[in-house]
Amino acid sequence: MRIKAFTRRGALGLLGGASSAALIGCGPRGDRGARDAEVIVIGAGLSGLNAAMILADQGMDVLVLEASSRIGGRMKTLDALPGRPEAGGQQVGAGYGRVRGRAADAGLTFEDFPPNRFGEVLAIGDTLIPAAEWASHPLNALPEPLKPIPPGRLFFSLAARANPFQDVYAWMDEAAGVHDVPAHSWMAGRGANEEALRLMNVSLNGRDLASYSMINVFRSLALYTLERSMGPSQAITGGSQRLPEAMAESLARPVRTGANVAAIEADGAGAQVRLAGGETLRADFVISTLPFPVMRQIGVEAPLSALQREAVEAMAYTPIVQLHLEAETPFWEADGLAPEMWTDSPLERVFAGRAADGTPTGMLTCWLDGMGGLSASTMSDGELEALAQAELARLRPASGGRVRLAHAQRWTPYNALAGGAYMHYQPGQAPAWGGQLATPAGRLHLAGEHLGVLHTGMEAAMESGENAALAVLDAAAPYPGRAQ
Length: 484
Ligand SMILES: Cc1cc2nc3c(=O)[nH]c(=O)nc-3n(C[C@H](O)[C@H](O)[C@H](O)COP(=O)(O)OP(=O)(O)OC[C@H]3O[C@@H](n4cnc5c(N)ncnc54)[C@H](O)[C@@H]3O)c2cc1C
What we know:
CATH class of the domain at 2-73 and 238-314 and 433-476: Alpha Beta
Strand content: 15-25%
Helix content: 25-40%
Low-confidence stretches: 1-30
Bound molecules: flavin-adenine dinucleotide
Distance between the termini: 43 Å
Largest sheet: 8 strands, mixed
Number of strands: 19
Mean pLDDT: 92
């Protein structure tokens, strides 16, 4: 219903006016004295907090609204579980200047990821295969040249051999358009047989190969190459969530949690938001860091461009479901195999929590993404636990299936505050959308990981928050009502 309303209004090219007033109750052009903040920032993830800090540093009165009771959004540390597993962003690239800068300002430090002293075991069908035996294993049905490549690396290995992008800007060049093809046909054209395509789909950072643009793949590879040239990724000591918490703590005006924004209205003169409880808050500017699947569910009355409206409706997010399991017994000691597994089962990838010296903590994380994550997205905790127990009993008989589901994390379309884990470009999107989606819509500015241009992930969130804050400062400069 809301999506329809949004589309219909969008198609009319909304600019506030009578229909806006109907949505929120009164237009944004109003008594300046009645405003609740100079800038309202929606979302207390990295993007919103970075924008808020920049604006507050410049003397603006900023109010951050966060629907959840927790600060951090997709930076989420499961503090109550052994080893504090991460349910969201974790790897901080060596070149993440903004993330590292904010962390340093807050006194946070970084640490290397613990070594994996056990390697990985593959589970294909019912058969366990130590990774070292994969290349010559009878169940390896890959074409001869691809046989030595572990299933989890097939996708990027093939793409990396032919990456046409020499730098992180290349994906936005006009010439990049020729690479805007589905990964499925591209990989098939490069020698991937049906089995290779099946295995690639298991741990794909998207929904499926057919709906994943090679521009996205080549862009990611160019970014990884640059990051790797600067050094290894690291983790934030104490957990990823410590960073957004520290950023929120630094704001003079506390983040208002439990503030679920249900509607946004903006024109060229002002902006306001309506909370789910009915309260309306006014500001001179609003920065929305809502992921687009979330934005598509709320009422937005603003002069968004046709491209922005299209992207809000159509931007794709990778579905991920994580099962954080506590193993009752160290079954890897009993069967002598690595605790970590890459499987073609419904559990997909199984990661083992590791202490600083590499010793397993006893926590396992099953990471289901793409279509696997989507299939699991409607399952209850009980069903997910039963699935994990049955599959582990089948794949690792030594476990006896004795695992307990400590937490199920759903980054899926049903997560009303995220809509998925992170964006990716489908064929037909990047050439038109790249760098074009953050244009201010009147006094509504957009930010969030999905609007990163030079980065992806955490650093994209920071980059986009910075861009939105700078645009607001620019627009606010001549405005006499602005705090000096
Ligand atoms: C499983 C997973 C693994 C990842 N791994 C990495 C990694 O290793 N490295 C990396 O760089 N990146 C990684 N990322 C991506 C990174 O975590 C995100 O890009 C980044 O945290 C997004 O920040 P954001 O501010 O754009 O969005 P968010 O953090 O999602 O912030 C948006 C905020 O808006 C709030 N909100 C939603 N709806 C409303 C509403 N109606 N009203 C008010 N508030 C609302 C949300 O609760 C949220 O707090 C990972 C993400 C996931 C999910």
